[in-house]
Amino acid sequence: MKLSTTRSLNNMSTLRELYIEELQDLYDAENQILEALPKMADKASHPDLQRAFKEHLEQTRGHVQRLEKIFEGLEEKPSGKKCHGMQGLIEEGEELMKKNLDDDVLDAGLIAAAQKVEHYEMAGYGTVRTFARQLGEEDAANLLQETLNEEGRTDEKLTRLAENNINKEAAR
Ligand SMILES: [Fe+2]
Which of 21, 11, 16, 17 is nearest to 124 (CA)? Predict the structure, then answer.
């Protein structure tokens, strides 16, 4: 009995470390997105897409604040990890923006790049939300779920923009 208690405590402390590392990954990812979104809004031609990027920039500031609040509660530092996954996704977006594309085609490409970013974040937030629940961190789990919902809604909005007009214009 005692052995299994000890083992489960050890597992918990390992999961807590992994939880913090995943949160740090997301914190760095969000900060990279804060830098990238203004450039993407600048390059976008369709006013709805520009607006979507600017709205998501505002949301992203809130995502960073939620993570900072969670780190405070854990008495841990938010920084210390580079998110190479997000770095790669953003680099691919930058390569796209350097190409000499028609406005509508560039918009379609920007949507594709942004949706890859959203899906990366959704995977990350789903993971840390589940870890938080498993660690009994209910307040953190709720905050992470809120961010996850916002990332999901942004992804859906981008899909609607692609389906409704932007990609049709690009196909002409
Ligand atoms: Fe975010």
Answer: 21
- Asked if residue 74 lies in contact with residue 128, where contact means CB atoms within 8 angstroms, the answer is no
Report CA(121)–ligand 1 centroid distance (Å). 6
Other beta carbons within 10 Å of 79: 10
**Distance from residue 80's CA to the centre of ligand 1 (Å):** 18
Q: How many CB atoms lie within 10 A of CB 157?
A: 19
Q: At residue 11, does pLDDT exceed 60?
A: no
Helix (H, G, I), strand (E, B) or coil at 146: helix
Residue % of the chain over a pLDDT of 90: 85
DSSP 78: S
Kindly state the tokens that stand for 30.
Answer: 């969000």
**Cβ atoms 17, 128 nearer than 8 A:** no
How far, in whole angstroms, is CA 45 from its chain's centroid?
A: 23
Neighbours of ion ligand 1 (CB under 5 A): 60, 63
CA of residue 2 to ligand 1 center, whole Å: 42
pLDDT digits (tens, 9 = 90+) for 55-91: 999 999 999 999 999 999 999 999 889 999 999 999 9
CA of 168 to the centre of ligand 1 (A): 28
